Amino acid sequence: MRVLVFLSCLFGLASSIVVAPARAQETTEAAPVVRPPRLLEGARPVPPPGLESEREEVLLEIIVGTDGAARDARVVTPVGRGFDEAALEAARSFRFEPATRDGTPMAARIRYAVLFEPPVEPVVEPEPSPDAEEVTTDTDEVAEPEPTEEPVEAAPGPIVDPDAIPDDELATFGATAVVEPPPRDATRRTLTSEVLTRIPGTRGDALRAVELLPGVGRPAFGGGNLLVRGAAPGDSEVFLDGSPVPLLYHFGGLTSFYNSTLIDRIDFVPGNFSVRFGRRIGGILEVDPRDPRRDGYHGNVDINLLDASFVVEGPIGDNVTFAVAARRSYIDFFFNEIVPDGVFSVVAAPVYYDYQANVVWRPTDSDRIRFFLYGSSDELRLVFSSPSDNDPNIRGNFGIVTQFHRGQISWRHLYDSNVEQDVMVSFGWTQLAFNFGEATRLELSTLPVQLRSEWRAQLSPTVRITGGLDWQYSPTDITFRGAQPTQSEGMPNMAAQAGSRVSLDAQANAYRPGLYLESNVRVIPELDVVAGIRVDYFREIQSWTADPRVSGRLRLTPSADDVQVALRAGVGAFSQPPEFAESAQGVGNPDLGPIRAIHTTLGSDLRFVPQRLSFTLDGFYKHIVDRVVGTAGGVPPFYTNAGIGRIYGLELGARLEPGSAIPVFGFLSYTLMRSERQDGPDQPWRLFDFDQTHILTAALVWTIGDGWEAGATFRLVSGNPYTPVVGRINDLSTGVYRPVYGDVNSDRNPFFHRLDVRVQKRFEIGDFRLTVYIDVQNVYNATNREGVSYNYDYTQSSDIAGLPIIPSLGVRGEL
Amino acid sequence: MSRRARESTFVLLLLAWGSSGLSACGPGFDPASFIERPRLVGAEVRVEGAPGRATPLPGDDVTLEPWLLQPEVPSPVRASYVVCAATDVRRGAAGCRAMPLAFVPATPPSESLPPVAFTVPPEAELAGASQLLVLVASCDRGALPSLDASTFLPTCDDPMARAELTTLQIPLAFDAMLANHHPTLLDEAFTVDAGPWSPRTESAPASCALAEPDETLPRIVIPSDAAPPDAMEPFAVTLTFTTDEDDRETYGSAASPLRESLQISHYVTHGQMERSFSAVDAMSDPSMPVAIDWIPPAFVDVPEAGAVVRFTWIARDLRGGFARADRALCLVRGS
User: Which residues span the domain enclosing A262?
Assistant: First the structure.
């Protein structure tokens, strides 16, 4: 998991002045003391030409090497107009007293706000304390607060002049020193807020940016499936602040449910994830919401062709901040105008909305409590006037309603410099209702409750231990009428027999407690080893699992070097319960066992620190056993654990971070992979439905200046496999032809390729910023085959093309 | 893009939107309603001594009459039949669980297919089967069909002939009181272009010149300026027919009874139907007839002497019951 620590006030937090030294005395002898870096010298930030009289503040994140040099700096809150570049230029000249652990220099990450202000000398000002506390949350080590009276040693010249900072600001602002902990996962890829909403082809949707990363497959039709290292979409999970997200996108892929401007970072773990996470055999996506701003009231409004949204945030008193956001689509206003006459009548045109409310309360320096309320809703209801030509069962009422609402409370508490705790409770309601005339009806309602608690303790300078509880309880009511459900992947969806409908009215309580324990040991200064075990229970199938996992990181170069090289490796066991329909009595097999997988990863990192350029290379192999497969003909017991799978590949990633010497950032990812499945002991190996041999993604964004920014994303991906039709059966009982399939997934669509472009221009009108953007997907209108459609008797076929050129125009105003 | 194609595309996008999956429909295909080759479109089970019953009981003598439709220019068909006890499957195609109850190696070439007679074995010999399976391998152009032993797909001895495998599942009843019955369309009222439309007692003539127009062969005139079939609003003729509420039987347990739905397939030898299927179910207004537009061929495609157009409707209750109705009309060019 993420990082660690903190803390100390370079200039001091008034409220902690009294407490902090006492604490330091209590803990100094028993535990290592981590001291943050202190600024020694640096160049004066030079405002952009013509803007010398304006006040701006640019928040930077700086990596300070063991030699005290600013190794890496990035803009956390860009303000544009050249101020970002000027702040970065200043940061490059900073010299620090390095962070130390028990007196030994160590690399650290800190946040600084660079202030451009005309009346006084430009000063380098520490980041407000709320953010400092925010990074405290996932700390490995905690540096004790520095008393404010400890002076900052000013560099020669008028660079950092503490006297230029009023006393009351000295009392108000602190600085954050974040010491990078050894990662808990063998491979973790992070996207920060700086880039999340600027990726071409995503329409500014932060979660879409994940598709840039190595190991992430391309979903068909621009859908929202998360395809990670050849795993099924349901094998991976997305977490929002530790709580699983049931529905990530509106209408399966239109836009994500969470306001992108409220996201701080997204961490993607394609495999070998920490024991903190379980119940999944694919990958993990962690969405980390940012805390609301406390430097006054702010807001933004975004209006585009599909929906409109707003965010309002600010402080309430000294210790509380809030953010409120909401979005609503307006497709329903014009939907009736675009539907063909006579096909169906619209009962409820498609509409979606989502909302987020976030209140952060910091009662003490050691506590942060976050109250979170969020939800999402999609609804569409139609009445088809006549049966479909291809399937007469498609007729009558068509309706889809999905919604979820969550309340979430999380508490982070620092017991002392060595022990910290996270507790999170979430509860809510999820509803899924789908019906297609009399043929299919599914209604699912669940009231999930989740408790997560994690304790981290630094037992010695080299040993850290983490223990956690991950408890889920989901009472669920389900009603189903329709054809017997089938294996979700691989086996083509064979038509149901006439009259063979199944009915299910069930109440199920998915009770899934999980416990984990993890140690992080620095075996030698260059080597960190993380070993853990996770135990889960799945009451619906009455099964226990125990998953041991271990990963390691070996640094081949000193952390102070401009070029850093590291090796990573991991191996571990992972378990996942069957889907509800697969184990439900009546349509599934309650005697199923969990699906199990072994993940192995070997990777390396190469980083050119001054250039902000990094490369990663990962090889991986995953072996899956006890896969759930359907029985032939869909007869009892309907499903068995007879399937196995194997996935192997290489991932190459290159990344140029924002804030380098050139006004460009970008990503280049290439994945070479093969994902295969075997549906039974006597069955041949076959390709997985979403096997994509080659996945190449390149994205480049250029900050042109004067508020202009332009970028492009290109994607070249192997087409998905599909099962060809080799014959047909005229089924008199149903009046339709049934396809006769060839070998499963023995054919493949052609390569997919697409270029997306995004151009935006930002206008500054006082404190108000107006951004106009156009995001064009598939700019050269490539016709990509996503599948094959057939005529009524499967003697004629034609390609199903993917999404055509889709321009999206929007305006965002920020205050 | 034609209206049908736009509709299909829209439905596809809707489905893709919701499920991110693939769906089987697409533009530019011949509609299922158009009879361009010999096609088996249904079959009627006749149980000896129980008229109208669709589900035979063990021990019943059964005659199966296949309904073969021919295009404007008919083609001789040969077929092989296998009748057996079916395996129970909920998805995909059923197979035979035991030796065939009846086997017809190959029928002689003909524009229709002969009925097949067999006896349902006693319940003890059915090995738990709840339905029978009829497999028909057929070839047009008078070719001899055979089933490939490895793929179970049919082949013809004439490479120009089209081979087709047809299946029919016949549900069995084990209690005469619970048996299903065929619906009927024979006594329903049909209209064409708002005029009455009666069945013919004899086959439709080969040419419009061979019969006078009447209620059994009404004349439809297509104007020279009629919008072609691929127009946004093509020239169309409205056909209607009534259905009987009694045709939709109630079944299931007394505690939770279910009502049959009727699925009606439309077939035509010239032009195309507005849609391939209609449904009569709980959403239907019983007081309103089923209405469907027939889109005739373009004016230029209608022969100078006119064309006899044959229509067939097949109703299924999806529990083994079938009904059929046929009508014909003359399509002639206007001035």
Answer: 189-286
In a domain, A304, yes or no: yes
Total domains, chain A: 3
Beta-bridged to residue A454, according to DSSP, are: A422, A468
Q: State both tokens at A422.
A: 């996270």
- CATH number of domain containing B322: 2.60.40
Residue B21 confidence class, pLDDT cut points 50, 70, 90:
very low
Sequence-ordered strand ranges (E) for A241-340: 243-244, 263-269, 284-289, 298-304, 307-316, 320-329
Same domain flag for B262 and B291: yes
First to last CA, chain A: 34
Task: Compute the distance between CA of residue A390 and CA of residue A477 in angstroms, rounded to an integer.
Answer: 32
A247 and A319, same domain (yes or no): no
8 Å CB contact of A798 and B166:
no
Chain A closest-CA separation from residue B12 CA (Å): 9
A384-431 tens-digit pLDDT: 777 877 778 777 788 999 999 999 999 999 998 789 999 999 999 999
Q: Would A20 be classed as within a structural domain?
A: yes
Domain membership flag for residue A690? no
Q: Which of A482, A500, A528 is the last residue of a domain?
A: A482
**A498 to B318: CB separation less than 8 angstroms, yes or no:** yes
Query: Within an 8 Å CB–CB cutoff, is residue B32 touching chain A?
Result: yes
Name the percent of chain B in helix, strand, coil, to the closest 5: 10, 40, 50
Tell me, rounded to whole angstroms, the distance of Cα A712 from its chain centroid: 21
Residues of A in contact with B88 (CB under 8 A): 633, 635
Asked which of A178, A205, A236 is the last residue of a domain, the reply is A178
Range(s) of the domain holding residue B56: 39-178
Of B22, B89, B314, the CB nearest to A800: B22
Q: Is there a contact between A223 and B8 if contact means CB atoms under 8 Å apart?
A: no
Same domain, A52 and A160: yes
**Digit-coded pLDDT (tens) for B200-259:** 888 888 888 888 888 999 999 999 999 999 898 999 999 999 998 888 999 888 888 889
Distance from CA of A481 to the nearest CA of B (A): 13
On whether both B253 and B140 belong to a single domain, the answer is no
CA A686 to mean position of chain CA atoms: 30
∠ CA B132-B133-B138, nearest 5°, is 150
Do the chains contact at B316 and A786, CB–CB below 8 Å?
no
Structure tokens at A412: 């982070």
Rounded Cα–Cα distance for residues A234 and A222 (Å): 17
| Nearest chain B Cα distance for residue A799, angstroms | 8
Give the DSSP H/E element, type plus range, for residue A382. strand A367-384
DSSP track, A326-377: EEEE-HHHHHHHHSPTTTEEEEEEEEEEEEEEEEEE-SSTTEEEEEEEEEEE
Same structural domain, A197 and A117: no
Q: Quick one: A174 and A264 in the same domain?
A: no
